[in-house]
């Protein structure tokens, strides 16, 4: 996400009001309305294009347009999970519908059938996300050309075609697009510059998009066959845990811990692109030479840890697309229906920032299109698909040092941020669920007794959906309907 999103920019397209009619506060351009325990983003998917990175050489990158279409697109593609301190992650779990989980395992056995040449020139992974989460780079304001849609992965019965190495699409002439230049900061932050004309609170729904000029005029489109009624939730087969981490027991399965310390133990560093991804050390603060489970520790302020699946991108694995030479490349969390569960705290370490671009004492949890960290999460904007809308969602993000509120924001060609917020868990841990299902994203604080077991019944997820689809001050639920929804 771009760090310099202004309130006015986010109001480019409207969305239904959240709970701001009941009161709001403007803190340096960031609006806070009501404290809630659940937020739903409705109408998050759509049709559109973004630019996939196809090469990285001599400090420059090239890309080509890629079309997507589906109810959750482009977030039905592979996603990476990012955690910025101060934060202590006690548990993490990833669930997929049973039918999708079965197909997912089968695909993991079948990847790697194409040549290395095809892999290196397949659709790429880039990101120039100018978010507070990664405020390492310059802080120029992003220019985004209005547009609709971005989608790149076909999903059949809950399984991404990208994962299946079956990028289905028609090649066609791509419209000339405006070049977009944006800083690459960190994971999602909807910080505002506080510029004049700051909009009133209320739904910052948007369908703004930016498309970077490409050296090719050919566009590949992938259509997601995501029939709302055609998934395991409707067939009653339940959801299966595909990845898990428990800090107390020091165990993990199905996932890998990474960070941005390439050149230290693993990954690479150069003066053109900086640090690539690397394996994270046990405390998450440095690189490691091999996969290492995160220990039971507090991730320090400003430090970022990335979680992906433990399925490594193979030499002949076209489903990973293009990624930076020498990086530590793993598959992200794929599928048109998926759920993430967290147990965590965000302690206040008392530190303050030297500048508003320094994410000190500003913890966050967010997800990115996994192409972004596999090419360049921080740095040259043309080396990432972020600026052209491949997708980011900020789940819990603190926007000012020491602030006790966590905001959420969707970044992409359909974009917006709910002004209601969650309380930052500074002392005790909380449990929370993130459900991406059909055309919606649901965030819900869970009871402390919730067990992240090996399976979850359909009724559990049905209740999350039912409990979070209507604004309610009494029930502490905020519904944010984006302009992309019908």
TrEMBL record:
<feature type="domain" description="Cell wall protein YJL171C/Tos1 N-terminal">
    <location>
        <begin position="38"/>
        <end position="97"/>
    </location>
</feature>
<dbReference type="GO" id="GO:0009277">
    <property type="term" value="C:fungal-type cell wall"/>
</dbReference>
<dbReference type="Pfam" id="PF10287">
    <property type="entry name" value="YJL171C_Tos1_C"/>
</dbReference>
<feature type="domain" description="Cell wall protein YJL171C/Tos1 C-terminal">
    <location>
        <begin position="238"/>
        <end position="460"/>
    </location>
</feature>
<keyword id="KW-0326">Glycosidase</keyword>
<feature type="compositionally biased region" description="Low complexity">
    <location>
        <begin position="179"/>
        <end position="238"/>
    </location>
</feature>
<dbReference type="GO" id="GO:0071555">
    <property type="term" value="P:cell wall organization"/>
</dbReference>
<feature type="region of interest" description="Disordered">
    <location>
        <begin position="171"/>
        <end position="239"/>
    </location>
</feature>
<keyword id="KW-0732">Signal</keyword>
<comment type="similarity">
    <text>Belongs to the PGA52 family.</text>
</comment>
<dbReference type="GO" id="GO:0042973">
    <property type="term" value="F:glucan endo-1,3-beta-D-glucosidase activity"/>
</dbReference>
<feature type="region of interest" description="Disordered">
    <location>
        <begin position="106"/>
        <end position="143"/>
    </location>
</feature>
<dbReference type="InterPro" id="IPR018807">
    <property type="entry name" value="YJL171C/Tos1_N"/>
</dbReference>
<keyword id="KW-0378">Hydrolase</keyword>
<feature type="compositionally biased region" description="Basic and acidic residues">
    <location>
        <begin position="106"/>
        <end position="119"/>
    </location>
</feature>
<feature type="signal peptide">
    <location>
        <begin position="1"/>
        <end position="17"/>
    </location>
</feature>
<dbReference type="Pfam" id="PF10290">
    <property type="entry name" value="YJL171C_Tos1_N"/>
</dbReference>
<protein>
    <recommendedName>
        <fullName>glucan endo-1,3-beta-D-glucosidase</fullName>
        <ecNumber>3.2.1.39</ecNumber>
    </recommendedName>
</protein>
<keyword id="KW-0961">Cell wall biogenesis/degradation</keyword>
<feature type="compositionally biased region" description="Basic residues">
    <location>
        <begin position="120"/>
        <end position="134"/>
    </location>
</feature>
<dbReference type="InterPro" id="IPR018805">
    <property type="entry name" value="YJL171C/Tos1_C"/>
</dbReference>
């Amino acid at each position: 996400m771009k760090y310099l999103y202004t309130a006015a920019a986010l109001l480019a397209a409207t969305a239904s009001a959240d709970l701001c009619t009941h009161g709001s506060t403007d803190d340096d351009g960031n609006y806070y309305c009501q404290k809630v325990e659940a937020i739903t983003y409705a109408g998050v998917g759509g049709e559109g294009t973004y630019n996939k990175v196809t090469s990285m050489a001599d400090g420059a990158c090239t890309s080509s347009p890629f079309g997507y279409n589906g109810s959750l697109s482009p977030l039905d593609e592979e996603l990476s999970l990012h955690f910025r301190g101060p934060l202590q992650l006690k548990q993490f779990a990833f669930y997929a519908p049973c039918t999708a989980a079965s197909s997912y395992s089968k695909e993991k056995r079948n990847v790697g059938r194409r040549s290395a040449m095809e892999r290196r020139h397949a659709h790429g992974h880039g990101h120039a996300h100018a978010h507070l989460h990664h405020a390492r780079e310059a802080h120029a304001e992003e220019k985004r050309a209005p547009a609709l849609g971005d989608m790149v992965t076909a999903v059949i019965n809950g399984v991404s075609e990208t994962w299946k190495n079956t990028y289905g699409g028609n090649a066609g002439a791509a419209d000339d697009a405006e070049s977009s230049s944006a800083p690459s900061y960190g994971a999602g932050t909807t910080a505002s510059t506080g510029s004049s004309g700051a909009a009133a609170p209320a739904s910052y729904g948007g369908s703004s998009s930016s498309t970077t000029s490409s050296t090719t005029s050919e566009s590949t489109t992938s259509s997601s066959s995501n029939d709302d009624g055609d998934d395991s939730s409707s067939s009653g087969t339940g959801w299966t845990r595909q990845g898990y981490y428990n800090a107390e027991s020091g165990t993990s399965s199905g996932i890998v811990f990474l960070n941005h310390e390439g050149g230290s133990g693993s990954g690479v560093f150069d003066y053109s692109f900086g640090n690539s991804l690397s394996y994270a050390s046990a405390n998450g603060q440095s690189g490691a030479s091999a996969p290492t489970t995160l220990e039971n520790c507090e991730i320090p302020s400003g430090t970022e840890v990335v979680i992906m699946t433990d399925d490594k991108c193979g030499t002949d694995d076209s489903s990973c697309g293009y990624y930076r030479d020498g990086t530590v490349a793993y598959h992200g969390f794929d599928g048109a229906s998926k759920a993430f569960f967290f147990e965590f705290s965000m302690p206040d370490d008392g530190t303050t920032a030297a500048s508003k671009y320094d994410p000190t004492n500003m913890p966050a949890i967010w997800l990115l299109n996994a192409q972004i960290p596999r090419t360049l999460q921080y740095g040259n904007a043309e080396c990432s698909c972020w600026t052209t809308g491949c997708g980011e969602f900020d789940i819990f993000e603190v926007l000012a040092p020491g602030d006790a509120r966590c905001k959420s924001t969707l970044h992409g060609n359909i974009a917006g941020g709910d002004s209601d917020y969650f309380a930052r868990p500074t002392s005790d841990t909380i449990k929370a669920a993130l459900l991406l299902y059909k055309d919606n994203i649901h965030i819900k604080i869970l009871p402390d007794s919730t067990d992240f077991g090996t399976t979850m019944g359909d009724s559990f997820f049905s209740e999350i959906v039912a409990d979070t689809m209507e604004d309610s001050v009494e029930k502490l639920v905020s519904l944010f309907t984006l302009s992309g929804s019908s």
